[in-house]
Amino acid sequence: MGPPILPGPQIAGMAQQRRSRGDEGRTWCPSLKVLAHYRHWLYERSLETLRSRRPRKEGARMYRFPSLLTKPRWHRWLLRASKAHGFCWLLALILLALLTVFLLLRPTPSSLARGNSFETCSTVLPRDRPRFCTGTDPIVEGCSLDAQTVNEVSMRWGTRAVGLAQVRHSPLCNTYWGRGFSFLHGASISVYLPDLGTGAKASYLSTTSQVYSNMVYAFVPTVTIEIIVGPAQVIATTIPGVHPTG
Length: 246
Prior knowledge:
Helix content: 25-40%
Largest sheet: 5 strands, antiparallel
Number of domains: 2
Oligomer: single chain
């Protein structure tokens, strides 16, 4: 004797009972056993329908139920797929865990670590400061926090004071840089450090009333401040540096 037949309305009633018990938030999916019963019920109904029908005309089409519901071999594949589905999730979690451990334990290349480091002139060891400090911005590198003016010269146009040229020093970083101020409205001002060469790191032009240069490490550089009044009028002041001997 075959398994008890669960007609379609009874399966729908089972789903309604689950919803009435408060399972509305979860998706109800019939088990493979229930699907087998439902397949058997559809198969019996189809046989009854075919027996009760009159002989069909030549060339007429008969309605066929989906093979997924009428052929038992498809239910065996569904059972295997259900088991394989859980196994695949377990395998995926294991592979993800192994990949995470590999990425955490893999040593970082030294060149990549140096390129992605957040070290600045104010935080590195003294032996690395020449590389981190020379030609860099004093504000970005954190050296302007304890900076002080060690030399200052007034810039004059005739008898009129039009600006200031300064040499700044950071005891924390042991670096020096130049800074200039302009008292003329609308005039540009530039700074130049010959000790940094002739490239973009050595000079800077500002259209505001003040300007500062990049840093040099461990010695006082020569600082030149220029106030550009017009196309043919430049007011320049140079503060000599103190270069290391030997």
